[in-house]
Amino acid sequence: MPHPPQGNAAQLLMFVSGYVYRLLRHEARRAKVRWTALMVLKDLDLLGPSNQRTLAEIEQIRAPTMTVLIQQMELRGWVRREADAKDARSSLVRITPKGVKQLTSSGRMLERRLEAELIDVPPKVLKALGDSLGSLSSALIGKINAVEAADRG
């Protein structure tokens, strides 16, 4: 029986994302940059201020681990916590200008490594990849935003 379209896409995405994840995580480790902190900075950059529970769910780490990570990131000046106007019991984590600077410099380093990996891929294939990943990214951000809105509502 043939796989449904999402089954084939899922298999390919698992292979590619696993490969890219290991490649970039290794590069970050080599540069002595904590991978999970970079991922949280990227989450905040994409989603805007978020609560710690949402960040822990996205990064699939326990809440106490996220609390320690956020504290470390606060000490570096990469994030700050602020009161959530919609929920007095909760706070939101926001990326700071220093966090944006760290994300940008680390992002450039990782992007250069990934570009080196893609050097022999034909331009037509890269164009199709960029178009497809743009659509997929938008769909995933929409799902994350919907979950966060449900958590607040």
Write the layout of secondary structure elements.
Layout: H1 5-30, H2 35-47, E1 50-51, H3 52-59, H4 63-75, E2 79-84, E3 87-95, H5 97-117, H6 123-152
Antiparallel strand pairs: 1-3, 2-3
Helix pairs in contact: 1-5, 2-5, 3-4
Whole-angstrom Rg: 17 Å
Strand content is 5-15%
Helix fraction by DSSP (H/I, runs of at least 4): over 70%
What would the principal axes of the Cα set say about the shape? globular
Strand order of the largest sheet: 1-3-2
What labels would you give this structure?
153 residues; mainly alpha; 6 helices
Q: How would you characterize this protein structure?
A:
By secondary structure, the chain is mainly alpha-helical. Helices cover 73% and strands 11% of the residues. The chain has 6 helices and 3 strands; from the N terminus they run H-H-E-H-H-E-E-H-H. Strands 1-3-2 form a 3-stranded antiparallel sheet. Helix 1 crosses helix 5 and helix 3 crosses helix 4. The N and C termini lie far apart (42 Å).
Summarize it:
The chain has 153 residues and is mainly α.
